[in-house]
Amino acid sequence: VLTDKVAVLGAGSWGTVIAGLLARAGRQKVFLWARSADLAEAIASQGRNPRYLPELSLPSSLTVTADLGEAVHEAGVIVGAVPTLWARGVLSATSAYASAGAVVVNLAKGIEPEGLLTMSQLAAQVLPGRPTAVLTGPNLAAEVASGLPAATVVACADEGLAGELQEMFSFPNLRVYTNDDVVGCEVAGAVKNVLALGAGMADGLGAGDNARAAIITRGLAELARLGVAMGGHPWTFSGLAGLGDIVLTCTSHRSRNRSVGFRLGQGCSVEEATAGMHEVAEGLTAAPCVVALAERHGTAAPICEQVASVVAGRCRPEEAVERLLQREPTHERAGLPVVGPVLEPVEPC
Amino acid sequence: VLTDKVAVLGAGSWGTVIAGLLARAGRQKVFLWARSADLAEAIASQGRNPRYLPELSLPSSLTVTADLGEAVHEAGVIVGAVPTLWARGVLSATSAYASAGAVVVNLAKGIEPEGLLTMSQLAAQVLPGRPTAVLTGPNLAAEVASGLPAATVVACADEGLAGELQEMFSFPNLRVYTNDDVVGCEVAGAVKNVLALGAGMADGLGAGDNARAAIITRGLAELARLGVAMGGHPWTFSGLAGLGDIVLTCTSHRSRNRSVGFRLGQGCSVEEATAGMHEVAEGLTAAPCVVALAERHGTAAPICEQVASVVAGRCRPEEAVERLLQREPTHERAGLPVVGPVLEPVEPC
Predict the structure, then answer these.
(1) What does the alpha-carbon distance between residue A189 and residue B259 come to, in Å, rounded to a whole number?
(2) Torsion angle, CA of A169/A174/A179/A183, rounded to 10 degrees?
(3) Among chain A residues, CA nearest to B207
(4) What CA–CA distance (Å, rounded) separates B132 from B243?
């Protein structure tokens, strides 16, 4: 049972879109917290986010603030929309104000590098006792903002709560599916940004559409191996949070991580590739984290390893692609979890 | 144990590329059969396929013929590379010459409309007793021809034979994975062309990258439901033949089916959308077949149904997209086969 106040923490493009949609739907009182007082002031006075999403008009019912306590106090739902590098600091600061029963819904896609934690694992650590959920899928903020159709997933271990969140985040142009696999969805969100760097590199090298499709597909196999080892459900990775978001991020010209990868493929350094970017390319942070998690869980992650090597400056992109092609021929399902017999289908969709 | 002669039936772009690569590798004597005597003559005299792939030089060791008996006689491997609409006629005509132990490897991606059969089911009917296999994956012929890297799958129920075919079809820029799921790979190849029509329509309507990613992902769920009902392995659909080829065909500007869908989305009729195309867009034939198969097997296929409606002129693309968005909210795995517990992983890749 969600209360009538929602706090969205982080006024980047996606946090701004979600806060705007929630406020426009008018089902709850919505607070958008921006870390920068200047940005909060600008959003409040202009009715739009001049830094991250100037094209979207925000409803006047949205309250914008740089005061974390004001945003979070008595909120039934806390939506985390800050980059993973700042998430520990922001969520920790929230703990002084957060209600004991608040639901923490995460939007960021990555791994907290200090503890190699997913966002819900981090929330469980710094905001203990609160239920956690994740909203994730192939959702370019600018497209959702402009009213184009999209589908997404809300994952939560509690089925009833998942249904409530599904209702809360459903908007005329956003179709929400439920899923009970929080960790699977979160690992997917982290790995897809690393794969997008790899797909961008291949494109930047001019490796062709077949090569990109192979990176996406074999990258999904890497994700499935790691995600299942971390407790995720095999099907999650073929869903919107896995495949759907991998496809979007690896193919869209509007994807930040793909763009950075593209410039790396063209020979830029990481500094050159990210110059002038307003927002974070989470894949750069996630690449070494994903490799470390794969090592910890004993799963093969050859594409993420090569991406991490390029990001760290240990090899050139053309060497990375070359190495991926020269591996031993193998069976397509090698290393993938063996799934049991197919049982009866559940109700048709 | 394969003999030293291979017959490639069909001199379209992909058949021509595969015949050329096999001949250049020099491991077998390779015959390429063209239905048109004029085309066979032109390919033989020019050392290239002027109609379908003028940019690729073919090795002089390749024998090109319009005589089916000459091509097939004593061939240990018969590679079927004709469109599904002609496959029954060509394979039936082959039966007079084909060795009893010849392996039939199919390259076409679609369903034979007369009997709603996959290509290996058709081969089992008209060339009974021969082992069948399928070579399929995200492989744009022109890219493979130009030496760009790609990955693909050879599926065959006989593991030893799969390994031999893997070796036979491995080339420096083509990485081949084995799989034992023939029917799963074949259904994937048929459904992906229908989904590409749908993704193209959405792009033609300007629906955005999020919508395309949703069509790809939810289309994969449709494929998995149908493919498993037809006896395929769940993992196949997340592999190169399923996801990999769906992604390629739904996103590449070089995909024929996507291009036809794009023009349909812009308001063209099927006739207008296919005007001037040299090669067949298999999705147009496959759309009603996939819907019929889904009905027979009792699986939901909402995207393929909408595509089939547009192709048949029963509704406009914008109505089709609208209907897909307005369906009841659901769980992401609804109707997907319930997979059993995850057992121990097989050897890492």
Answers:
(1) 30
(2) -80
(3) A148
(4) 23
User: Which chain B residues are within 8 Å of A244, Cβ to Cβ?
Assistant: 213-214, 216-217
Which residues pair with residue A104 across a beta bridge? A78, A132
Nearest to B124 by CA among A176, A141, A123, B115: B115
Task: Give the type of residue at B29.
Answer: K
- What is the interface size between A and B, counted as CB pairs within 8 Å? 279
C-beta atoms of A329 and B221 within 8 A: no
How far from A220 is each of A34, A211, B100, B237, B323, CA to CA, in Å?
34, 14, 40, 11, 29
B243:A238 CB<8 A: yes
Reported pTM: 0.86
ipTM of the complex: 0.86
Nearest CA in chain B to A173: B325
Of residues B43, B46, B52, the one with CA closest to residue B14: B52
Concatenating the DSSP letter of every residue in B134-149 gives: EEESS--HHHHHTT--
- B321:A213 CB<8 A: no
Among candidate residues A5, A29, A109, A192, the one labeled active-site is A192
- Please report residues of A whose CB lies closer than 8 A to that of B298: 348
Mind telling me how many Å the CA of B93 is from chain A's nearest CA? 34
Q: Do A213 and B138 touch (CB under 8 A)?
A: yes
Q: Tokens for B253?
A: 């500007």
Q: How far apart are CA A106 and CA A132, in angstroms?
A: 8
Q: Cβ contacts (< 8 Å) between A138 and chain B: which residues?
A: 209-210, 213-214, 217
For B36, other C-beta atoms within 10 Å of its C-beta total: 12
A5 is catalytic: no
CB-based contact A284:A312 (threshold 8 Å):
no
Label residues A180-190 b or e (16+ Cβ within 10 Å = b): bbbbbbbbbbb
Residue A101 neighbours by CB distance under 10 Å: 12
In order, the DSSP letters of B215-241 are HHHHHHHHHHHHHHHTT--GGGGGSII
Question: In angstroms, what separates the C-alpha of B170 from chain A's closest C-alpha?
Answer: 9
Marked catalytic residue, from B5, B29, B109, B192: B192
Q: At what angle do helices B159-169 and B13-25 cross, to 10 degrees?
A: 90
Residue of chain B nearest A251, judged by CA positions: B251
Per-residue pLDDT tens digits of chain B, which is 349 residues long:
577 999 999 999 999 999 999 999 999 999 999 999 999 999 999 999 999 999 999 999 999 999 999 999 999 999 999 999 999 999 999 999 999 999 999 999 999 999 999 999 999 999 999 999 999 999 999 999 999 989 999 999 999 999 999 999 999 889 999 999 999 999 999 999 999 999 999 999 999 999 899 899 889 989 999 999 999 998 898 889 998 999 999 999 999 999 999 999 999 999 999 998 888 899 999 999 999 999 999 999 999 999 999 999 999 999 998 787 666 667 777 766 544 333 333 333 3
